[in-house]
Design brief:
heterodimer; A: alpha/beta; four-stranded parallel β-sheet; 12 strands; 52% helix; B: alpha/beta; binds iron/sulfur cluster
Amino acid sequence: MGIYKTEPLKCWGKAKELRLGVYEGIKKARDNGTMIVAGGTESAIALPAGFDMDFLGGEPYGASCAFAGIQDPSWNRGLMEASEAASYPRDMCAYMRIGIGSLLSDKFVFGGKYPVPTFNLQTHICDTHGKWYQIMSDIEGVPYNCVDYVPYEWETENESEESKRLKRVYMKDQMLDVIDWMEKVSGKKFDDEKFINAVNWECESTSLWAQCCMVNQAIPAVMDEKMMYSLYIIAVLMRQQKAAVEFYKVLLDELKDRAARGIAAFENEKFRMIHDSQPPWHNLQIFRYLEQFGAVSIGAHYSFSLSGGWAYDKEQDKYLPAKAPKEAGVTLKTREEACDWYSEWLLAYQTLLRSLRYSGRGKHKRIQDIIDNWKIDGMMIHLNRGCEGTAVGQMELRRYLADRGIPALTYEGNLADVREFDLERTIDKIDTFMETVGLTKIAK
Amino acid sequence: MIEDFKKIYENRHNYMKAWKAKNPDWKVLGYMCSYMPEEILYAAKVLPIRWLGGHEPQNVTEPHIMGMFCPFCRDVLAQGLLGKYDYCDAIGITHTCKHINQAYESMILHRGVDHFFIPTPSKMQDKQALPYYAGILKIFKEQLENWTGKKITEDDLKRGIAIVDENRRLMRQVYETRKADNPPISGLDSMYMVTASQMYDKQEVNKIIADVIKNELPGRKAKNDPGIRLMILGSEDDDTAFINMVENCGSSLVIDDHCTGSRYFWNTTEPGNDLMSVIADRYLKRPPCPIKDMPNRTRIPHIQGLAKEWNVAGAIVIQQKFCDPHELDKVAIVNGLKAVDVPTLYLEFDVTVPIGPFRIRVEAFLETLGSEDLF
Ligand code: SF4
Ligand code: SF4
């Protein structure tokens, strides 16, 4: 018997159905020759939603391939090797290498051939983003465009309003140009109403996910991080769709109900942890291993923020769920208004993407916010060789935590390249860490 | 004298300390990447100098930077943490790559220096980049005014532009002379010239370059036999030991595409009324670094053009180990050179490069280039 009651999530099946539906849609589009747009899923995915299209996002696709490697390691290795055989260096972004390898070997992890898109559209955030889909387009021979994304600085930097205005206008104007470009290269008419709806839904679903994360401040936590991966993915894949909003509304109600009834994600929660960076998707069992000690990872700046819209509240000195247009009393009527609002949403509230650009002091503030408000006892940092975007600042984060006496465990790995992950060594590191924080394995 | 470039490069800190003592009304700002808008700094009486590595093994950056970040950012941070650049009053970066960003952040966290970050656009080809960047440079100008307590006038800006453009024009002139069958200046001395321009007062360096052009280069031959003409390109590179080795193996480096070389000075500003736009426009139009080259690939025709005009038989493409920006362009660049029949040798650099093994590879490469002539 554990300390807390636990029960499965009711909307688990719905999450799975939605997730698979995205890839089914892409497969159908590939087979019917209808429009597919590809790009990073951190990109402005509401932008091409002015067309009837299916969106293939590179990061969740890479994670799916890494996950598929659990059943058949040759699958994910094969893609990496295909990319290396074509001279793409081994230390570059592992998601990107999976995408390149998948395309070059013409294999789609969900079955059949790799779906070549009508065009690639990317936003450029970390060093890799904009170049990734330039390379994909080189190989595919399809048009390519990108939107330069210069996020607002962290609150620690006191950025001027003029600087923010310039960034917002820059992004908005690029978006407007990209809409014209998409019409030109696809030969299709862009539907403003569809686009405006997509912007509203994207803001709403990401705000709702942030609200779901807030519920996890409860003790015991209602979600563990491994569970969150299956839930936040809806926003990663399809946040611009109404179905995502509906899903998160149901999830939020369910989580609140669990919190009210004291239902835990993990029945023996004793030591609350957060994780940094994407996990090694091919070895998620490390999260289950923590549980043997009564430790549970209940979130991350990554899983809270990749799918969440977070606004900094100066008075409370806290990050809180950002308000979507309707909640903020705004009605978006035109393409221009939607681009403007969308730019503000991405630049101001997409805090994970901000940390891909700026490491250091601002990210420390956000991590401290999570530690304080989610009542965190320790942190686990994945020194992720597969993603320089999230790796920036990690060593300094470790020092920051050490200076404040916050226990931190670091382990090396790679989000998607299993060859760079040593399970035995990671388990050893977890054992040592648990010993230092005084946790022993719970007797079965 | 050509040797002066080397003297400045090798004694950069002594030069700067002496310079500072002579110029008490100026401040010094250290920057790490060649996108820093130096015109505005000269206008503000803030001397911009580029931080480069020390090319010596060090053990101070391990707690700050992950092993998979490039050796250049580690070396530069090491110099900063070891206090080698303590005569700088501030540091600054423009948005370029994550690795430089990391070195900059660690300097702020652990040395508490004054700092300036310029959120440079990446999609430099986009027409929206100009108004954005001009606006951002205006903010930078105001920040400098607050920092120095002095207004920057239009005349100051014109003076700043003139100093930096003069430096660019002079170096371009020197590079033009390298088109000759037997170039008057070696690749190594050219690298010393560019890096000296980055790490010392351009007003002083301009005088040296002008003198070299007038009095030294005419009729000069860098070597009796230039050997095989090569190009070098890729990540940040001031590995003088490597350059020297290559030029002692029967070849001459006659052109480059490096931020410590031609990319730094290739274009000057173009006339215009709004000086912030004039300066912004110059940086948007310069030969780009890989992560600023999108959505179209403008680097390839530019590099192909250099290879053709400087008539090279082959190219050495170097990459600082783990340098994502240059790795991301690797396949496209190598293919682009292949398309114009320029064979390439691809090498990965670290803080120090193992000259022996690299010599073997360079010699083997030169041998293949030489043997092509035979058949
Ligand atoms: S943030 Fe990481 S995963 Fe995303 S593109 Fe950059 S390197 Fe790849
Ligand atoms: S060598 Fe590459 S990774 Fe390193 S600072 Fe230069 S561009 Fe950045």
